[in-house]
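Today's session is about reading a structure prediction critically. Students often jump straight to the picture, but the first step is always the sequence itself: look for stretches that repeat, for charged clusters, for runs of hydrophobic residues. Only then move on to the predicted structure, which in these notes is written as discrete structure tokens rather than atom positions. Here is the chain we will use throughout the hour.
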Amino acid sequence: MDVTRQQQLQNEIAATFAESLVDHDWAEATLFLIEVGSISRVWVDALDATGSARQGLSVPDVAPTGSLLRETMADPDKGAWFSLALTLTRDGSFTARFNLDRRVYDDAASPFEPGGAGEVPSDSDYLADLERFPRAEKYRPSWLPVG
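Below is the predicted structure for this chain, in token form.
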């Protein structure tokens, strides 16, 4: 795992995200990226300086860079992360959190709760992901389907 490359890709995602927010009033914004099997989704949540939710923000095209980051971070024993939450503050600082063990959903309200679309990604998406990024048994969550 190339830590320098990982940081470079995270910085690139954060910079692209920040550029997409230039014309908006915001204080803190979070970009969510889900990638499992053939499913890839990106959405943005943001707050203004008063703590009110901001609507109608553009979603930056970071999925290709996110995929590259995921591949760069993949571990032969632990596999790859299922989702990324990158939180950016107005001063340009950011934190990135990676989820390697919780089921994710295509639900902007909560990526860890089923939404109206049901179970997206599906079990077959997780199986395809596991085939691409294998995990040692001790790093497989109990809910993760086994092929």
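Discussion point for the tutorial: Residues 3-139 form a domain with the Murine Class I Major Histocompatibility Complex, H2-DB; Chain A, domain 1 fold (CATH 3.30.500.20).
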